[in-house]
């Protein structure tokens, strides 16, 4: 390793270090694989992945889709705006762009194509809207939890700081969609295809309770882990109090949610472990300090 260091020039050059030292930093210190990123992934991130899985299995995504449809379905380019609102609501509780696309995209993309939007534009709208879910409070992407750990501040502080940027992101996206819809002369959906807000809330409105509980718990200064577990319990209770019997969290649905969360956790954990390797290399070589100058 020391002789390899001499082959790099400029900010990439460093004094070099032995294999033993590299392995020690990778596996035996907090700046390596088993550092703050993996620690965060195995605690707060896993809890919220579990929360998102329970929310998805319970049918809350359908509630968000119906609410978004009722709010923006009749506007110009309505289905595309429905995709934005639905993805924002779903992303605020999942923090995963992939899960967001998988749950809302199957509903919104066909709607957008039905009013005349091209497949490419419909896919772009859904992908962009779902990606924004990673910065939409209260439950954001894994980077937000890692950021809180690195900076030594509470996750609630990160959430509050992200509110305005997230709203601006979605406002800009809605404006872009409206401009494109006007350019193409597109209209919204007919009144017959728009659900009534009262009917939607009456059938599944209690599934909004976990969102309120999580936000309230975080604002009270509780840890994200506490808020996540409380949110999971709220989902189970709310599903059984909801008039719509199809959303009830039976043992089968709970098992499905646990399995889905396990698959999602593996992906995030591997990514966070890889980030630990990058942090180790950046710290040891000093390239981080050089790039910041």
UniProtKB/TrEMBL annotation:
<dbReference type="InterPro" id="IPR010656">
    <property type="entry name" value="DctM"/>
</dbReference>
<comment type="function">
    <text>Part of the tripartite ATP-independent periplasmic (TRAP) transport system.</text>
</comment>
<feature type="transmembrane region" description="Helical">
    <location>
        <begin position="264"/>
        <end position="287"/>
    </location>
</feature>
<dbReference type="Pfam" id="PF06808">
    <property type="entry name" value="DctM"/>
</dbReference>
<keyword id="KW-0472">Membrane</keyword>
<keyword id="KW-1003">Cell membrane</keyword>
<protein>
    <submittedName>
        <fullName>TRAP-type C4-dicarboxylate transport system permease component</fullName>
    </submittedName>
</protein>
<feature type="transmembrane region" description="Helical">
    <location>
        <begin position="135"/>
        <end position="153"/>
    </location>
</feature>
<keyword id="KW-1133">Transmembrane helix</keyword>
<keyword id="KW-0997">Cell inner membrane</keyword>
<keyword id="KW-0813">Transport</keyword>
<dbReference type="GO" id="GO:0022857">
    <property type="term" value="F:transmembrane transporter activity"/>
</dbReference>
<feature type="transmembrane region" description="Helical">
    <location>
        <begin position="225"/>
        <end position="243"/>
    </location>
</feature>
<feature type="transmembrane region" description="Helical">
    <location>
        <begin position="159"/>
        <end position="179"/>
    </location>
</feature>
<dbReference type="GO" id="GO:0005886">
    <property type="term" value="C:plasma membrane"/>
</dbReference>
<dbReference type="InterPro" id="IPR011853">
    <property type="entry name" value="TRAP_DctM-Dct_fused"/>
</dbReference>
<feature type="transmembrane region" description="Helical">
    <location>
        <begin position="199"/>
        <end position="219"/>
    </location>
</feature>
<keyword id="KW-0812">Transmembrane</keyword>
<feature type="domain" description="TRAP C4-dicarboxylate transport system permease DctM subunit">
    <location>
        <begin position="8"/>
        <end position="292"/>
    </location>
</feature>
<feature type="transmembrane region" description="Helical">
    <location>
        <begin position="32"/>
        <end position="65"/>
    </location>
</feature>
């Amino acid at each position: 390793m020391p002789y390899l260091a001499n082959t790099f020039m400029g900010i990439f050059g460093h004094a070099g270090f032995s294999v033993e030292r590299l392995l020690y930093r990778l596996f035996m210190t907090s700046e390596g694989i088993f550092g703050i990123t993996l620690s965060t992934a195995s605690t707060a991130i896993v809890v919220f992945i579990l929360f998102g899985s329970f929310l998805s299995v319970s049918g809350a995504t359908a509630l968000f889709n119906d609410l978004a449809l009722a709010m923006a379905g009749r506007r110009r380019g309505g289905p595309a705006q429905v995709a934005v609102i639905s993805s924002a609501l779903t992303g605020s509780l999942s923090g995963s762009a992939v899960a967001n696309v998988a749950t809302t995209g199957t509903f919104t993309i066909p709607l957008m194509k039905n009013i005349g939007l091209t497949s490419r534009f419909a896919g772009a709208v859904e992908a962009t809207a779902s990606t924004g879910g990673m910065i939409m409070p209260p439950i954001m992407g894994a980077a937000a939890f890692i950021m809180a750990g690195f900076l030594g501040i509470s996750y609630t502080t990160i959430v509050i700081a992200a509110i305005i940027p997230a709203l601006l992101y979605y406002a800009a996206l809605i404006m872009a969609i409206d401009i494109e819809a006007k350019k193409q002369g597109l209209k919204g959906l007919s009144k017959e295809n728009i659900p009534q807000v009262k009917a939607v809330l009456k059938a599944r409105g209690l599934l909004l309770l976990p969102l309120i509980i999580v936000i309230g718990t975080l604002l009270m200064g509780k840890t994200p882990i506490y808020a996540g577990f409380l949110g999971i319990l709220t989902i189970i209770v709310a599903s059984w109090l909801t008039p719509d019997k199809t959303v009830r969290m039976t043992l089968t649905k709970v098992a499905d949610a646990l399995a889905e969360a396990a698959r999602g956790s593996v992906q995030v954990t591997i990514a966070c472990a890889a980030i630990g390797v990058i942090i180790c290399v950046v710290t040891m070589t000093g390239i981080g300090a050089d790039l910041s100058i």
